[in-house]
Amino acid sequence: MKRSVSASLELGVDRSATLVLSVAVARLPGLEVSEELTILGPDGRVEPAEVADLHGTRLHRFESGPGRVSIRYEAEVSGRAEPAPVDDLDLITYLRPSRYAESDSLLPTAQSEFGGLEGRQLLASVSSWVGSHLSYVPGSSAPTDGATQTLLDRRGVCRDYAHLCVALLRALDVPARLVSVYAPGLFPMDFHAVCEAFVDGAWHVVDATTLAPRQSLVRIGTGRDAADTAFLNTHRGNVVLERLSVLAIVDELPRDDVTSFVTLG
User: Fold this and answer.
1) Spatial separation of the C-alpha atoms in residues 251 and 184, rounded to whole Å
2) Nearest residue to 63 (alpha-carbon basis) of 105, 13, 102
3) What is the CATH number of the domain that holds 100?
């Protein structure tokens, strides 16, 4: 499987700021990645510092003075990543409630709707339930909305769907986390977010939006929720995202059976 991905950002910076990007393909065994990251700041080309995060996530940090910042990332990805490793800390961390996945608050709902289900049946049921209870409405959620608010509003975007899946699964003692991805076949094209759940000894993808085939997704960042996986974090100066363009294509778009187990490759 060969995938081509890219992201372009145009930013306006009103005073000196620190910026941290999470747009690069995760560095994982089994993947061959040819890539280029170009950052042009007010004073010319910028060379960011690469910082390793969990699970192969790569952050790029740099400083910018006031003015315009242009960012372009391109990558060609071939092969499939080996199954995501598991350690004991993962199985503790991804069972805990977090900022956007309030599994403790959603415990009664999870037990009422999915009590007694396990494995493949549980993941398929949570995905179907979230997909049928929410409407995908671009721009409908606030950056601070978590899973509980999403369920009350009954609408959201990909990260909201993923947060609700994560919270419901954690409430049922299934380790679950959020993954930011490039998603060939996605419409409208953008960065995408999915849930990854640990059942039957491995991490499996849950995407209640069903907007892109899970088999072609490319991992960017992995964490507890969107607080760990945002494509851009800024500190100090005020930064405005003026334009964002994302593209992800694959040589052959696979068909996805939402009831099947799929690992992120």
Assistant:
1) 10
2) 13
3) 3.10.620.30
